[in-house]
Specification:
It is a single chain. The protein is of the alpha/beta class. The protein folds into 2 domains: about 120 residues, Rossmann fold, CATH 3.40.50; about 70 residues, Arc Repressor Mutant, subunit A, CATH 1.10.10.10. It is about 55% helix and about 10% strand. Strands 1-2-3-4 form a 4-stranded parallel sheet. β1, α3 and β2 form a beta-alpha-beta unit. α8 packs across α10, α8 crosses α11 and α9 packs across α10. The chain is globular, with a radius of gyration of 18 Å. The two termini are about 25 Å apart. About 25% of the residues are buried.
């Protein structure tokens, strides 16, 4: 992707990071004109980093790159302050188009995502699971995703740099918001959600 961007006359990549926790410091150091943020970075989740960027760099355009085409991710990213949302499988020309769009101050969504979003708001293809998950806070949503991928409470706590007690509290909140009776139902729900999102 960096090679592709650097081929453009008016664009170049000034920094890269695999770990989400490095991103804020790298931005302070390099002062980019736009950030391309993978929603599934190592460490802190992409949406959490996006929230931090919005607090620290209010006017910096952020383009989300994701393998998820579920509208719950798109809507959460846009609500958190993303200027665009691009699927990883979209062509190179769409990446360059998206970068230029957000640099001009526009919001970028691919045509396919625009149609899907419009279809949902018109009442076509509504997903009860997705509408339930919309009630979760960004942190609860992140924990649900990690539970669905088979992470234990301790592993989630280590990954998010939070205490086990805090993760357990979030788990309780998730159960209450999703009307789940116990930990077993929570894990089953999270696993089903994870499978749906990977298809």
């Amino acid at each position: 992707m960096a090679l592709l961007i650097n081929q453009e006359k008016d664009l170049f990549v000034c920094g890269e990071a695999e770990d989400a926790d490095v991103v804020p410091g790298l931005i302070d150091e390099q002062k980019p004109h736009v950030v391309i943020l993978d929603i599934s970075l190592k460490g802190t989740g992409g949406l959490e980093i996006l929230a931090r960027l919005r607090a620290q760099h209010r006017g910096l355009p952020v383009l989300i790159l994701s393998m998820h085409d579920s509208l719950i991710y798109v809507e959460r990213a846009l609500k958190a302050g993303a200027n665009g949302y691009l699927m990883k499988h979209e062509g190179a020309e769409n990446l360059i188009l998206a970068i230029h769009s957000v640099l001009r101050g526009e919001t970028y969504l691919s045509e396919a995502l625009q149609k899907k979003l419009l279809g949902t708001y018109l009442g076509h293809g509504q997903d009860k699971t997705a509408s339930s998950v919309e009630r979760l806070s960004p942190r609860e949503f992140e924990i649900l995703q990690l539970l669905g991928r088979g992470h234990s409470t301790r592993r989630i706590a280590d990954r998010l740099h939070l205490s086990i007690k805090t993760i357990e509290s979030h788990r309780e909140n998730i159960k209450e918001k999703l009307n789940l009776k116990n930990a077993t139902e929570l894990i089953q729900y999270a696993t089903r959600w994870s499978v749906l999102e990977s298809n």
